Amino acid sequence: MSTDRLARVNELMRREIGEALYHVLQDYEVDMSAITVTHVSTSSNLRSAHVFISIREHVEDRQRMMRQLSRHAKDIQRMINSDLKLKYTPRLTFDLNPGIEKGDHVLNILREMNPGDDSEFLDETDNDTDDRDDTTKVTS
Asked: pLDDT digit string (tens) for 8-67?
């Protein structure tokens, strides 16, 4: 399978799994606002997919939330099968991805080093001025 197609399948799976999580886990005591599907890595034969999940805060509940996800993997697969038309519905494996939390931790450390001045965290393009010539073109 081409890498472009596999990348599209991964992105489509990520979106569909995110929606399916809401429908499958809404009846359980799981804070859905804390769960993010960060990345999906589908095998080239579409038989399996690793789903990387980020859980913000809820440090004490992470393992319970991951068990709930694993327990309902078949339900999520069923929803994906009904929504997507793929040759195979991948078997889902959920893995915890601490990357977003680590990034937040680094940003918090930087904020503590320079309290009250968040201007460094703004996008540099917001502060740049346009150095191009401001001549006006007149067309007849």
From this structure: 999 999 999 999 988 888 777 778 888 889 999 999 898 999 999 988 887 788 888 888
Sheet holding 48-55, edge to edge: 35-42, 48-55, 91-96
- 73 closest CA partner among 51, 96, 55: 51
pLDDT of 33:
81
Distance CA 76, CA 45 (A): 19
> 3-114 has which fold?
GMP Synthetase; Chain A, domain 3 (3.30.300)
Residue found by looking up tokens 């540099």 in the block? 124
Hey, which bits of the chain come out as E strands?
A: 35-42, 48-55, 91-96
Domain range list for the chain: 3-114
Give strand pairing partners of 52.
39, 95
Q: Cβ neighbours of residue 29 under 8 Å, at least 6 residues apart?
A: none
